[in-house]
Amino acid sequence: MGSLIEFVDLKVIFHMGGMQVVALRGVDLDLRRGEVLGVLGESGSGKTVLIHAAFRLLPENAKVSGKILYQGKDLLSMDRRRAMRLIGQNFSLIPQGFGALNPFLKSWLQISERPMEHFGVGKEEGHRRAEFLLGTMGINQPSRTANSYRHQLSGGMLQRVLVAMGASGPSQVVFLDEPTKGLDEGMKRLVVSLLKKARERSDAMMVVSHDLGFLEEVSDRICVMYCGDILEVSKVREFFVSPRHPYSSALLNSLPSRGLKPIEGEIPSMVSPPDGCRFSPRCRQRDARCANKRPPMKAVDDVMVRCFKYA
Amino acid sequence: MMRSDLSGHLTEVQPSPGRQTLIECREVKKRFRYATKGSFLAVDGVSLSIKRGELLAVIGESGSGKTTLAKIMAGLIQPTSGRVFFEGKPITSLDRRERLNFSRKVQYIPQYPDLALDPSWYIYDSIAEPLRIHRMSSSREEELKIVRSVSARFGLSLDQLRRKPRDVSGGELQRAVLARSMALNPEVLIADEPTSMLDPSTQARIVRLILDAQRELGFAVLFVTHDLQLARVISDSVCVMLGGKIIEFGSAQEIFSSPLHPYTSSLFSGSTFAGETKDNAACPFYSQCNLRAEICCNSTPPEFNIGRFRGVRCWNLGQPH
Questions:
Q1: Are residues B194 and B313 in the same domain?
Q2: Are residues B236 and B308 in the same domain?
Q3: pLDDT tens-digit readout, B225-260
Q4: Does A255 touch chain B if contact means CB atoms closer than 8 Å?
Q5: Count of domains in chain B?
Q6: Whether B205 contacts chain A with CB within 8 A
Q7: Are residues B192 and B316 in the same domain?
Q8: Which residues of chain B have pLDDT under 70?
Q9: CA-based nearest residue to B111, from B235, B226, B252
Q10: Are B179 and B127 in contact, with CB atoms under 8 Å apart?
Q11: Which of A15, A124, A252, A278 has the fewest CB neighbours in a 10 Å radius?
């Protein structure tokens, strides 16, 4: 499996009125062909920033350095128009929440926006495709759904519209941002089954979530983020059986089925995060080195871990 | 409560002795009318009681009527029909003092912590407001003492109390909402999906705080959730809602080890996903049920009771197979 997208030492710093917020602290990650990569992290860990950087959607006040290579081409150093064309033709995004849908446009137009914009698909064909996609997702009256606005659809239908948006173009890389936030079990299961369908039509997927159970079900590899740093990258089975990083095990232990033990302390403020390992103030296994120096990424067996325990 | 005795081994439910019933609703229905046309029956004939000191979980998917039921039991919305009793008296006929007493003893925590507190108020004032309304403190010093002690229980520092909701995280905000309701020493806490919007470790922390406070202070909790794992771990008894009806209830252990309603078992096994098809069949699970028969479409299954605290609304349990 070769890598399709490579993030090389990606740093994102937001400048906010004299303050600096380091949202990503040098991320090295690859998305391989054919896989589903789950990015796991709590709020504020930089998951969404990672996706937005790949789409060049970050706001003006964000200073980005490093590289995002798609099939060897750097999306960040390319001029904006070329990058947008490349991104539009190859990537699709299933955004977080129904707020991403334009309330003034019918759903078919939003589903087929990408093929119409980037692949020269006409209006009628776009409409037909949207209806077809909705039909394959188990909607009873796809033409009615396609011609509805956001407020006319139920939560389950909107979720399908969002997934259809991600699946409307030819095979590419699909990014999903928190597809299960606030959804109940039934809806989660729907997203899982839709995602498995969408997987067949795409080369690779990156799913960002804080829902451990969901990621366990859908992903091949798991990447754990905490405060803008990647702490662990491992195969999904390995991660749930023997997590390497202290944060990973602490997070797993906070699940109801594994004891419901909360992690001590608070997530640090991103304005003044701890030096060294970002998790060190809450870590039970910390030592003198952790507070001062950022641990290097080390390969332990098949797993990449950023912790002095393994250095 | 609809009770039937169709087969021999099913017996009449007896109210469980010992524990005092705090809030009880009988045959409660709530119909929402849309501004344009039509209406939606959110809660369809629910009878339920919360007993002193128990943790009752209400589980169900979005749109099953969990939140509406919780709000009715908290006295926040009026049911279309049916009645809600608090300590044996219907809440609509409470006088002013009793009503104040009810609103002190029954506290409600909404799902979205960021919408629960006034954004222009300091968190301190939001926590102190109920104390002022109920005249629970004679002086500012005493008020400060109560607010500080209840905030300390939920891990909020003085510095956080001086902030406004936009300046704290979701987990801190939910703890502030908890502190606000706990300041009044309630007897019932109605928590409407208090953790569904939070990260797993924050969720664990909030749930732990509720459980610890409950163990210490002995209040009852009605915990509305769609997280089955969570319900399994924390609750004493469980109600499963679907389409505005309670389709199964019982002790948590019984429900999770041997679900009787086909919907409950499919929920646990993960075999089906929630359909958005709502047809007019009498049983809300009709269109997706493997065991459906003609009777399920035509007449609403009554509540068949098994043992002292176990009930199921499914025709399959009332008929010999």
A1: no
A2: no
A3: 988 889 999 999 999 999 899 999 999 999 999 999
A4: yes
A5: 2
A6: yes
A7: no
A8: 1-18, 271-279, 318-321
A9: B226
A10: yes
A11: A124
To the nearest whole Å, the CA of A190 is away from the closest chain B CA by 6
In B119-222, which residue ranges form alpha helices assigned H by DSSP?
123-133, 140-153, 158-161, 170-182, 200-217
The pLDDT score that the predictor gives to residue A64 is: 95
Residue B302 forms part of a structural domain = yes
Say whether both B244 and B295 belong to one domain.
no
SS3 A158: helix
Are B291 and B251 contained in the same domain? no
Considering CB atoms only, which of B203, B227, B273 is closest to A190?
A: B273
Residue B1 lies in a domain: no
Chain A residues touching residue B267 (CB < 8 angstroms): 185-186
Q: Does A134 touch chain B (CB under 8 A)?
A: no
Q: Are residues B291 and B250 in the same domain?
A: no
Q: Which residue in A25, A39, A119, A32 sits closest to A70, CA to CA?
A: A32
Contact by Cβ (8 Å): B176, B117: yes
pTM: 0.84
What is the Cα–Cα distance from B71 to B286, expressed in whole angstroms?
A: 27
Q: Say yes or no: A263 contacts chain B, CB-CB below 8 A.
A: yes
Residue range A246-251: mean pLDDT, rounded: 95
B211 and B318 in a single domain? The answer is no
Contact residues, chain A, for B60 at CB < 8 Å: 184
Would an 8 Å CB–CB cutoff place A170 in contact with chain B?
Answer: no
Residue B105 forms part of a structural domain: yes
The neighbour count for residue A152, using CB atoms within 10 Å, is 13
Give residue A1's pLDDT: 55
- Residue B15's pLDDT is 44
Chain A contacts in chain B segment 236-275 (CB below 8 A): 267, 270, 272-274
pLDDT in tens, A3-58: 899 999 999 999 988 888 999 999 999 999 999 999 999 888 999 899 999 999 99
* Domain assignment of residue B70, yes or no: yes
B34 touches chain A (CB under 8 A): no
Q: Which domain holds residue B209?
A: 21-118+186-257
First to last CA, chain B: 26
